[in-house]
């Protein structure tokens, strides 16, 4: 077992740009593997993985105005200030009378 740390950024010094982490090397011979159809499910973690990226404030908010279904202008007015970026995925969830598949009108934009 190899114990170690992979640290990228910190709470006081967050990474602001995209990063790519590539692990190279050969799996040691003494690593225990289980067949894919084994009834045992588990994971063993040894070491520390600490990644601190850009923090987005207000990961969710409410719409400030009603959006019409099928709206093509792609503008949603929200109640609170956010720091979301162009290209990020926004999920708009309906206010449904009943929580069931028949009333599902949620959209991803």
From TrEMBL:
InterPro entries xrefs: G8_domain, G8_domain-comF-like
Pfam families according to UniProt: G8
Domain (G8): residue spans on this chain: 1-65
PANTHER family registered for this protein in UniProt: G8 DOMAIN-CONTAINING PROTEIN DDB_G0286311-RELATED, G8 DOMAIN-CONTAINING PROTEIN DDB_G0288475-RELATED
The protein's name: G8 domain-containing protein
Taxonomic path: Eukaryota, Sar, Stramenopiles, Ochrophyta, Bacillariophyta
């Amino acid at each position: 077992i190899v114990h170690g740390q992979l640290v990228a950024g910190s709470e006081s010094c967050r990474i602001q740009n995209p990063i790519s982490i590539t692990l190279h090397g050969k799996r040691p011979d003494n690593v225990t593997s289980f067949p894919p159809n084994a009834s045992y499910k588990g994971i063993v973690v040894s070491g520390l993985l600490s990644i601190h990226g850009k923090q987005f404030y207000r990961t969710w908010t409410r719409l400030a105005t009603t959006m019409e279904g099928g709206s093509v202008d792609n503008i949603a007015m929200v109640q609170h200030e956010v720091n979301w970026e162009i290209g990020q995925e926004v999920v708009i969830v309906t206010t449904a009378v009943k929580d069931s598949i028949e009333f599902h009108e949620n959209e991803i934009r």
